[in-house]
Amino acid sequence: MVLSYDELTFESFEVELKGDPICILPVGATEEHGRHLPLGSDSFQAYSTARALAERVKGLVLPPLSYGVSSSLKDFPGTISLSFEALHLVVRDILRELIRNGIRKIVVLSSHGAQAHMSAIRTACEEAADQGDAKIMALCDYEIAYKLRGTDSIPVDDGHGGVVETSRMLVFTPTLIGDARPIGKDSTPAYLVSRHKKRYMTEGIIGDSSKASSELGKKINSYVVEELVKAVRAVM
Amino acid sequence: MVLSYDELTFESFEVELKGDPICILPVGATEEHGRHLPLGSDSFQAYSTARALAERVKGLVLPPLSYGVSSSLKDFPGTISLSFEALHLVVRDILRELIRNGIRKIVVLSSHGAQAHMSAIRTACEEAADQGDAKIMALCDYEIAYKLRGTDSIPVDDGHGGVVETSRMLVFTPTLIGDARPIGKDSTPAYLVSRHKKRYMTEGIIGDSSKASSELGKKINSYVVEELVKAVRAVM
Amino acid sequence: MVLSYDELTFESFEVELKGDPICILPVGATEEHGRHLPLGSDSFQAYSTARALAERVKGLVLPPLSYGVSSSLKDFPGTISLSFEALHLVVRDILRELIRNGIRKIVVLSSHGAQAHMSAIRTACEEAADQGDAKIMALCDYEIAYKLRGTDSIPVDDGHGGVVETSRMLVFTPTLIGDARPIGKDSTPAYLVSRHKKRYMTEGIIGDSSKASSELGKKINSYVVEELVKAVRAVM
Amino acid sequence: MVLSYDELTFESFEVELKGDPICILPVGATEEHGRHLPLGSDSFQAYSTARALAERVKGLVLPPLSYGVSSSLKDFPGTISLSFEALHLVVRDILRELIRNGIRKIVVLSSHGAQAHMSAIRTACEEAADQGDAKIMALCDYEIAYKLRGTDSIPVDDGHGGVVETSRMLVFTPTLIGDARPIGKDSTPAYLVSRHKKRYMTEGIIGDSSKASSELGKKINSYVVEELVKAVRAVM
Amino acid sequence: MVLSYDELTFESFEVELKGDPICILPVGATEEHGRHLPLGSDSFQAYSTARALAERVKGLVLPPLSYGVSSSLKDFPGTISLSFEALHLVVRDILRELIRNGIRKIVVLSSHGAQAHMSAIRTACEEAADQGDAKIMALCDYEIAYKLRGTDSIPVDDGHGGVVETSRMLVFTPTLIGDARPIGKDSTPAYLVSRHKKRYMTEGIIGDSSKASSELGKKINSYVVEELVKAVRAVM
Amino acid sequence: MVLSYDELTFESFEVELKGDPICILPVGATEEHGRHLPLGSDSFQAYSTARALAERVKGLVLPPLSYGVSSSLKDFPGTISLSFEALHLVVRDILRELIRNGIRKIVVLSSHGAQAHMSAIRTACEEAADQGDAKIMALCDYEIAYKLRGTDSIPVDDGHGGVVETSRMLVFTPTLIGDARPIGKDSTPAYLVSRHKKRYMTEGIIGDSSKASSELGKKINSYVVEELVKAVRAVM
After folding, report:
1. CA-CA 20 to 30 A from D77: which of B140, C125, E120, F58?
2. Which of D10, D98, D204 is the closest to C10 by Cβ?
3. Predicted confidence (pLDDT) per residue in F105-123, tens digit
4. What are the pLDDT digits (tens) for B35-54?
5. Which of A115, A231, A235 minimises the CB distance to E119?
């Protein structure tokens, strides 16, 4: 059974605290994910993966953050992108409060990996690490998942909304995945900071989602959790 | 059927957009709620109430914010309190992005009502209202629920974790409510900005939770939704 | 005789400091108050009440802040509304400096009670309270004055610029009060965050100012000061 | 008769607005001024000078700001120093609101002249000037008063709390000036940013206050007002 | 001949402006680079590369920024790490001002590639791109240089202060490179946000600097400039 | 030989640290300097003067900051003006990091002297001085150079780009100085915060640059360095 932080009373929280639990904060995003995947794909993945990890390490899952920094996809309908500062402050405050409460082991697990997004999270984590003795890990689980690129049927250039992500989502929220299986290719001019990314990304994805399957998704998800468990056990 | 914003694809979002939908952002908190109610009580109430409202007005429910400004309860184990600025920026960014996407009707529905918390939300809403033509409502549903104080078995001084809140929670998340039914009384010296609120609030609640019942909860919840529907229809 | 902080030299301040004085910071606003009351009504009330309180508790009155957060009345001519952040920082800095100087008892007394305004003040007070051992009280004196609603000739829904405020002002600054006695009614749609409040508040007041009198004003002012003295003596 | 902004009703403000009035914002400070002058010396001077100017140019005097940036005198008892950001935001907000109200001529008149203090004010003025068509002047009236150094009995190195300031204060608030007439000399090592200025400034003043007189004060005050009137008439 | 922005007068700047020049902002860092490379290695590389690029595209080289975000190397002596916000604001302001001056083509070229560092730069670039019609490129030239990993004698895991960086520096500032050729290996536990990175990085580099040579350096530098020229020509 | 901070390795920095060195941070600006002087004039002067000072006091020269707050010259082509906050944060961060590294003697040497610019620097220095035991000096070297006004051929009202500055530049960067020798006069209306300074400063300088000579420049530069050495030796 996985414990949710928000389902505890203040007294049962005190009991859990004695066991020096690992608190896991899932961070997602609300952004375009192609014609086949829902806007909340990153949130669904982060939450499911956090729970799978919590089950293995007896962790405590915090209420998820479902909004992230998604500036590069703002041109697509539905994307809600936080500013760097907003995400930074929210994560900073949550970590500060956990440490103030006596929590000493924290994992911030994002399934969205945009540079500014991860940077806002890591900046907050560094500040919290400076605050005291807590051990803090921060990662995007795609840093793990994409190690599988080049294996199986996963192309080395698979990306946003592609084979890996579609496969994972077919496991996590199968009923939300439509029939479309778009094939997308990012052709943004190198290094250009463009105001009109949509011009360069017609499908809004990078990869061939038609190669996705729930079998592959299960395999990827297992791999991600196993690697997460190893990483957590190495330091916590 | 209630539509969740994060379950839409960017294409189905575009379709919904044409109907000029009301977007509802549920805002909760993660804070002490007595020995009988979970830390996430405000989040559970906000989410459930937002969905009930969405069902009635064909609204679109946004991913909830489960952290709020809870500074007065920081002394109790488990409370995670955001700074004013963090909550302000997150709500500001979400509203800005919704308006940028073409959304013109927004309801920010909080079940946590602390002054600084609501003030952070309203400040963000005012900025968004200055941005353009969107109609924005912001409220704590306890502004409605507490209108029932003095009726039925609800004392006029019922408050945090008391009869009303326990009754509502018995409907929303019955399995999370323990057997304890504490009776609490706030005796914080008037107007004192104290660093040690816990000293004055032994039970962490204000009211007599033993008088709560799911019957009363259903009644209150119905009343809240009816009033919300009226308020929304009056302007949107 | 009431001591004003700004009338002391640095040496006479040092002498006063030995008596562990209560420092009182009056906070007002510059905003529309109906056709009969001046823009500085809240400042005049805060300053007069602070002096009356100082007289009773041998307090030291600080130079007043005459600007506040008045966003909801921005549509009316003359209103000057600070941002939350501006008021927050000024109050934070003043309290920090008082505590650095050795002051250990502080009362922030506002006669303007807007949610964001009081929230900016209280947020600053909480930060100062976290800073050390100072005892800090913060309130809007209308939290006291409106306890009289429902007594005498004061209607339960009296508000901004109504019977209570007009009566108090007839005592504090009688020569500034004109002959007009408007009757106003707030009909802003519930919970709407509107950009055009003026549309809903033709008179800019809430209540029937024609029922005001200096006799009632004296009574209210006495009550406010007595309650303030009690509250201060309870903790300082 | 001098008009005070805060004494107008919203309707009389509207009437005044038609005359395109010059709004004058007095800015003072709360800081050590030697054993003979009160902590609020700069505020008293700013307010009195603003009113004298208003009388001459038919200006509208705003409620004064009585706190400034006084970091170099923090070591002395009683000094309350705002941060740069606090003063900057308050002045910025007041100017923004005046311009929003239709005011097109603004004079920010400080009697405190610290570099960071004036810089906070001028930065706010520049932002307001960028906002639109308002004509904005900002100055410390000591930029004028010290032009008299080297004339009469005023030494060229007269400064904070010295002959000029003591003389002016003998006119403005004669009852608050004690019998002491300290002689001070600033011997802070050149360019050193010191944490312990008090070590270098035993009297807390720069100059020989024993040479001050109300006759000289009247002369200086007249000169300051005349120059102010000229400067204002040159551009407004 | 390469034009330096700061060597132009305001009149010669106006002349250059007519040619719609590409402005290149070199961004470095001041941080530990192993026992053999100077603290300013990233600044030297950025400046030299910017000039080489300017020569090819007739660009205008801006004064370099020699400080960056280097939080992960703070444990090593000499590292000066800016906060995210400081770098973000400086780059934002420079870009804003260039655009205000009429510059329409900007390349921000960093030789430091830390995630938060590049994220601060890119966030500023995105804001500037939103401001108007300027075309803005932003990159760390190691995004190009490391494409050569796996070719020649460059290992696939070469990193900070390794073969590539040492080789490049042997070309740019040969007299500053000492005789030491350390071999380092990053063994920071995966995803850990550590306060004590030095514990895990004894040499402060990642790679085998003994394999570096100025021949290889010239080859890498040429490749970097060629790729930069291509990227610039593709969009500007 | 003058040591440059950025040319040291982390090990040689550690060696230097033992000698308790004076770190000198040169701060310039990128702004209009008349038709005869380059945009980077202040940066060139700051850097050259810092090196001359370092030679005399065995100081360590930090990488220069070449951008400053130049708001009053924004109307002239080429000026790049930072916001107060950007300069403040960068200087604050650099000083913080130096102190964290064990540096205890710091000189911030600017050749640009605008009020807001110096105020941003000094505010940062005060914060760093509050941080611990470091001795910090901050100045614009024109505070020294202009003491020579009224001597030799230097008029008492010489200013920006005039005799003194042109003479100094003829020594520092003779090849960058053109043949023009403009004569300028600032006639900005007193105390006006203008959006259109260029209207009042046709030549963009204050003074008669035709009276400048490299002989005078050498004399001034020597004087500046001697005075700097004295000031530094008095406290460090």
Report:
1. C125
2. D204
3. 999 999 999 999 999 999 9
4. 999 999 999 999 999 999 99
5. A115
CATH number at F104 reads 3.40.50.10310
| Cβ contact D111:D42 at 8 Å | yes
Nearest to D8 by CA among F65, C36, F143, E57: C36
Amino acid, single-letter form, for residue E152: D
Residues 6+ away with beta carbon under 8 Å from C12: none
Measured between beta carbons, the chain B residues lying within 8 angstroms of C235 are: 189, 192
Number of Cβ within 10 Å of residue E215's Cβ equals: 12
The tokens for A127 are 């500040």
Are F129 and D190 in contact (CB < 8 Å)? no
Mean pLDDT confidence for A101-106: 97
Q: Which residues of C touch D77 (CB under 8 A)?
A: 10-11, 13-14, 17, 101
Partners of residue C67 in chain D, C-beta under 8 Å? 63, 90, 93-94
Give D151-166 pLDDT, tens digit per residue. 988 999 999 999 999 9
**Tokens standing for residue E59:** 């660009």
Give the contacts of C78 (CB within 8 A, at least 6 positions apart).
Answer: C30, C31, C32, C39, D5, D8, D9, D10, D13, D14, D101
Provide the b/e sequence for C9-28 (b: ≥16 CB within 10 Å).
Answer: bbbbbeebbeeebbbbbbbb
Q: Which subunits have 3 or more CB–CB pairs within 8 Å of chain C?
A: B, D
Q: Please state the rounded mean pLDDT for residues E59-76.
A: 95
More confident residue, B199 or B70: B70
Q: Quick one: closest CA in F to D116, which residue?
A: F119
pLDDT of residue B188: 81
Contacts of B137 in chain C (CB under 8 A): 191-193
The residue type at F47: Y
Those chains having 3 or more beta-carbon pairs within 8 angstroms of chain B are A, C
Report d(CA C205, CA D207) in Å as an integer.
53
Which domain, by its residues, includes F14? 3-235
pLDDT tens digits, residue range A115-127?
Answer: 999 999 999 999 9
- For the segment E224-230, the average pLDDT, to the nearest whole number, is 98
Q: Check B116 against C122: CB less than 8 A apart.
A: yes
Beta carbons within 8 Å of E118's beta carbon, 6+ residues apart: A115, E110, E138, E140
- Beta carbons of C99 and C23 less than 8 angstroms apart: no
Chain C environment of B194 (Cβ under 8 Å) = 129
How far off is chain D from F37, nearest CA to CA, in Å? 26
pLDDT band at A187 (very low <50, low <70, confident <90, very high): confident
Please give the tally of structural domains in chain C.
Answer: 1
The tokens describing E125, both together, are: 């670039």
What average pLDDT score do residues A170-198 get?
88
